[in-house]
Structure formats: C-alpha cells, structure tokens
C-alpha cells in the first residue's frame, strides 16, 4: 500500500539493494516463526547506522508509514508482523561491538549484535554478557522484549543489565537515554521505559550493557526427582538460602523425553533440575555441598556431574534447544509457548496445575522452567491449520495465565506481549494501568507508526 | 493562595486536625533541610491510606491545586519545597508493613515506612532490605528519588529492588504498576518510570520490595592509603575481580577529620576505605584474603578489623552521619552535596579533580564515596546568607559536574534532581531527551500539579 510513497522512492534511490520489496525478503520479515499470524511489510530496509535509521524513520513519519524494527526474528509473541504494512527496518547489519571496557565492566554495541557474537568478542578480555534469550537473538531485540533466560537467577534480566540506549524516536529524532555511570538518579528512567517497549516507542540502535568477569570455575550437575513438586521445592530452597547459583533449570518428564530424542541425550525420564555453579573454586565447592543437601532432602535421585566442558556444553545446548525439541515432536509443528512468572512460593502449585492441563490434550507439549525466578513455559507444538486444536491450546494457555494472575504473577516473564498476549495484559494490569501505558505511547508516537498493533490495541491512527 | 478552596474546606471538614494550616507545620513541610530555598505549602494533610491520598488528589485536581508528597523530609535536592504553594500530603502515618514473605523474599509496605523500621520488623524472619539512603528516609521517598547508598555495590539501587508500586495519579486514579513476580516482560515498565520520578508523575503510596536473607556472617575492616588514588584503585580492582563485597566506602582525609570530631572516633588521618564483607564463613574468608592482597599492592597502611558488633555499628553509624559531620564543622551551616557518578575507570581522576577544587575554598568540605559504583559526594557546609560563598560553591560544584559529564558520568548518582540540579540535567541529557521526559510528564500530569518546578522547569501551567 505504500509502494508508491515518496519515502520509499527516496530510500530505494539512496540505498539501492539495501531497500527491497522482494517477495521472499518480505515473507522473511513477516514475523512468522511461532503460531501467530504473520503479516508482510511493504518493504524492508537493511540499515547500517543510527543515522540511516533516523533518516528512514523521518521519511516514513512524514507520510505516516508504519515502521517495524527487525533484529533476528526470534521473538515468540508475534512482535514482528507488519500488521499495517509499512517498512521493516532490519538492523542485523548493525553488528559491530563499538567498545568494551574491562575496567568498567561495560560495552556498547550496535543493536544487531547477537549475544553469541558479543561473547565471542569478549572472551579474550575474560568478560561475558550473561543474559541468554533465544539462540541467535540480537541484543537490540533482547532489550525490546525485556528478555532474560537461564542466567537471570544470578545476573538479572535485560532490565537490570542495560545502562543506556541510543533510540530513534517516532519523528526521527535521536536520543541517548543514559551515560556510562553504573547508577543514576538523573531524571526519568528512559532506559527502563524503552526496555520492554517492543518497538512501540522508538527504534533501539545502540545498547550499553553491563559485563561480568568470566567466573574462575564452573560446574554443571543434573538430578532427577520423584515428582515435579520436589524439584521445584529444591529450587526454592536454594534461592531462599541465598546460594548464588548461576543457573537452575527445570525440565519436566515430557521435556526430558523430547530433549533426549532431539539432542541425542540419555537423561533418566524424571522431572529434572539442571544446575550450574560458578565462582571461585572454594565458593563453588560450598555451593555444591549446600545444594546436594537440599536436593537430597527432597528425594533427589542421584546427582550426575558434567564436569568436562564438552559434556556441559552439550547439556546446555540441549536445554537451549528445548523449544525446538518440543516443536519437532510433530512434523510441521509451530511453537506456542506460555510464559507465566509467579512468586516462587506458588510455583509448585502453578506447575502442577499446568501439568494437569497438559494431560487433557493430545497436542505434544512439555514444561520448562527458569524456576529460580518463578518463570516457566508450557510449550505446545501446534498446527495453525486446525482451528479446533488452536482453540484448545488457547484455552489451556488461558487457564495457565489465569492461575498465575490469581497468585500475583504475570502473563509474561520474558517473551513480551506482541500480538499474542494483548488480552492477557489487560487482565493483568487493569484498565487504568493500560490507559497510562497508552498515554505514554501517544505522547511519544502520536500517529501510531511504531510497531502498531503490538502490546495493546492502540485503536485507529489519529 | 488556596486557603479558601472547596478542596481545602472539604479536607478540613472530613479529616479535622489531620488537615492543617498551622504555621510551624507548614514550615516543617517547606523542604528546607539542605541549602535550597524552602517554600511553604498552603496546607498539610496527614494521609493514612491510599484511598485518602486519592481523595485529596482528586479534590485538589479539580481546582488545579498543586501537590507535593512528603515522607521524612530527608531529600537533598530541594524536592519538597512547595514552589507554587498547594497541598503537602504527608505520608509518614502510612507506616505499616503490609506483608512480608520469607519464601518469596519480598514484602509490601506503605510508603511512609522507614528502612530502619522495616528492618526491625524483618529481623525475626532472618531477612533484611539492604538499600540505605539517608537516616530516617521513608521507602516511598527512596523510591521517588531512586536512592541507593552504601550497599548498592552488592545489592543494586532502588531501581533494581522495587517490584511494584501503588500510585495515585494526577487525577486521583489509582494504579498498581506490577505484581509479585520477580521478573516480568508484560507491557511498559511503569514501576521503573515511577522510580526516580520525584513525585512529578504521581504519588507513591505502597511499595513491593525485594528482600534478602541476612548473611550468615559479616566482618568490617578499615584501612588507610598513601593517597586517594591508591584507595580508589583498590576499590576498582575489588570490583573488577568480581569480589562480592557488601560495602566499600571512601572517606577522604578531610572527612576522617570531621568524622573523628563528630562521632568520637580516632581513625588515622589518611584517605581511607571502609569495607564490609558478608556471606558464608568460607566466602567471607576468601573475600578478605583477596581484598587484603589487592589493598597491600596499592600501599595500604594496615588493616584494622572491627569484628565486634559494637565497633562495627559505631563505625557504620559514623559513616552514615558523615554528611552531618561535615555540616557541623561550622555553626549554623547547611549541607550542599554534589552527587556525581562516573565510570570507575575515571573515578580517581574525578576525585583528584574534586579535591583540587576543594583546595581553592575556605568553605568546610570533604569527600565521601560509594566508590564501588563510581559515585562520590563533595559535601560543603555553607551559609546561605552569604551570596559570594554560595556562588563560589556553585562554581566548584559545576566544575565537578562538568568533569563527570566529560567522562560519560551523571550529575546525580542517587540524590535526584529536585530544584538543585535542573540545569545540570539539561546539560547531561540534551534537549531532545528532556523533551521526551516533558512529553511523558504532560501525558500523565497535563495541568502540572504534581510537585511542580522539580526535575525540570516545566513552564507555566496549562
């Protein structure tokens, strides 16, 4: 619908084949990795600098052309579909680490840098960035969805680890939302407002992140439990006792089966916790001793140690692929993931409730959890072509969310709202809080050009 | 100016002596603890619940009466002066701990609870809340100024430790900005937008906070250094090596002198670091060993251990009173504190620069620093009746801020902007970012009733 716009002509002329309306490229930018309905943009622009993004945004703003920022396309709630067409600005070529400081434990990267590439660049300095969202995710995308992952129990989420952003606003102006100080009480926290805004308030082009020293030593263990409640109670006790565990992940029985099949492991078929301990040798030894005692008290069935790097990496790679392992249980399946996060004291109850709900369906599904944080996912492998099945999974997801909200939890721990959880967000926050969010949205994006149709039904453009 | 308003009549009638225009009470709510010009409100209302705050706000909103939320009056940047008169809503009677959960490591308190009272209530559960702003500060006030203090190097600031807020908006509506989940990716981060908003976007009435287990053991040490650079380099190395130190505070030579006099200590007259180590016995032993090695390499002059609880508490009490120790160096003096925070790699340079600036004045002054975070304060004891002196201190403060900004730092690490740092905020953020903040402000407070004249010159009411 915007093919003939002046903005598009100008971008095409100026950037040649970095601006494209090629069908395959449009489809690749329609946001269709999960179960949500994809929607093609009218064009894709591969930007290489903040200035280029600002130019594209200001050209489009003049003609009220909607904009979607695109990183790696790994988001899980339909964040990238171009609901009203317009321009998809692909930031994957903005993939330079601009600076990293071992003294200050921080770095600045372009938004298209992936976490894997950043860590590759940092390894020689003995540093790393811990937050691990989906494989291949860009750091800009991780900021936009307020991502977290398996290391959050120790290091926090993107909320805690972003120091500053460079952002292109809806009218093309560029702001920096902070400096390099590790803390600040200077004015409104624009950084945190942008973290988790899912492209609806501006386009993030550069990110300043906290870094951490690679721990002296680390060690990984797996252990099974008689039932999922025992596993969760173990995790809760570990957190309560203040053990600075690096990771602590739940894989329920169903997931162990899927992961064994997908990644060629041979884990015992039990509700299982995977632990990573990290720190100085003495600290790790002490952590392990405490955790073994706690787990034993909950009936843990033997610790297995993966002390060799290779075995550890294979195990974590399998865990990272868990989403795909579930989806692959069915040819052509698409992933549909719940993402609730609840107070840990209510976690057993919520996971048992979810497991019972999963028992009511034939759709392949399993549960994984960042249990130290109270966050877990029921992941289904669905066939979007079967409306009855989609309705069934929607009903189960809705039950899982309702249960989480009833105990003070949230519908989204780390995937964001996108198009998939708009209804849940309303239920969770209430009308007044949604009104406040919309007032902020309209203040910064009066024409609703920035990723329209995400986070909330923002109504018609004005 | 608002004495005859309907709102005031209604509040007086309904709340009797909890609504007052008594002169002494007005003066006590004029915000005049530091060097800023105080300004009386027209009336003070002692609220006892969120509903009462909402009622007062909606009554005042109807007649466009400005509102200032008041906690304990310990803020340091003139946040509490009633620049345009109106109603000061005193929240100090909202002092109940509403719930605390050892399983979830969280609690919900009314905004008027002080950190000291909260920790008193938690001690039996083996829990504590670490962030320690000024003595007697309320938790609502600490949220509003995004406070931190001596424990931030280990536990973060209010930014990282608030899970959710109950807020009365400018029109009297009440929202909750989050639930009890430890992480969330559900919509805009209204919690973080309110943290540090200094009463300009809404009035915080309830706060849900993260809690921590009281460490098994802790230990305090003091040591002097040949010069301030060596002390700072020690602190930086401790952070870089990932030692999970609980606190690490710099007192420069001048401050040691002031503190010895004010608190009856007999510390050696050197640039000094005070360390607190906390954790399991083994972890603390390991930390101490590492820190002693690092300090020795920087020429530290002997560690002195304060292992008895009494000695430790005396030392920390003296450190907490440092601001008053400096101010008391002159009869009738008022405190004026800089609050810059810089990347730690530039900290030595910035502190040396500040010390040189202090050498140019006769005004009593000294430097203290939360050096693990890069945050330090030059505190002056000024006489507001001497304009030349005030101009001199303003000039020195301005130089300290300019230096901080030139290395990527911030004008405020933890005290906020209030009326005192409005000009610095502009310099730091630039016009576009200030415009964004103002757009947000206007979206939530279109008539500029919420703490007007703070954070920025918001222009005339509309």
Fold topology:
2 copies of one chain form a homodimer.
Chain A: H1 6-15, E1 19-20, H2 23-28, E2 43-46, H3 50-62, E3 67-70, E4 87-90, E5 97-101, E6 106-110, H4 115-122, E7 127-128, H5 139-144, H6 152-155, H7 158-161, E8 162-168, E9 174-176, H8 190-194, E10 203-210, E11 212-213, E12 217-225, H9 228-240, E13 247-251, H10 253-263, E14 271-279, H11 281-297, E15 301-306, H12 309-320, H13 322-327, E16 334-337, H14 347-358, E17 365-370, E18 375-382, H15 387-406, H16 422-444
Parallel strand pairs in A: 2-4, 3-4
Antiparallel strand pairs in A: 1-2, 5-6, 6-10, 7-11, 8-9, 8-10, 12-14, 12-15, 13-14, 13-17, 16-18, 17-18
Helix pairs in contact in A: 1-3, 9-11, 9-14, 10-12, 14-15
Give the N-to-C terminal Cα separation of chain A: 18 Å
**Radius of gyration based on Cα positions of chain A:** 22 Å
Which two chains form the greatest contact, residue counts included? A-B, 93 and 93 residues
Give the CATH topology of the largest domain in chain A.
Alpha-Beta Plaits
The multimeric state of the shown protein is homodimer
Cofactor (chains A, B): FAD
Keywords (chains A, B): FAD, Flavoprotein, Oxidoreductase, Transit peptide
InterPro entries (chains A, B): FAD-bd_oxidored_4_C, FAD-bd_PCMH, FAD-bd_PCMH-like_sf, FAD-bd_PCMH_sub2, FAD-linked_Oxase-like_C, Oxid_FAD_bind_N, Vanillyl_alc_oxidase_C-sub2
Family (chains A, B): Belongs to the FAD-binding oxidoreductase/transferase type 4 family.
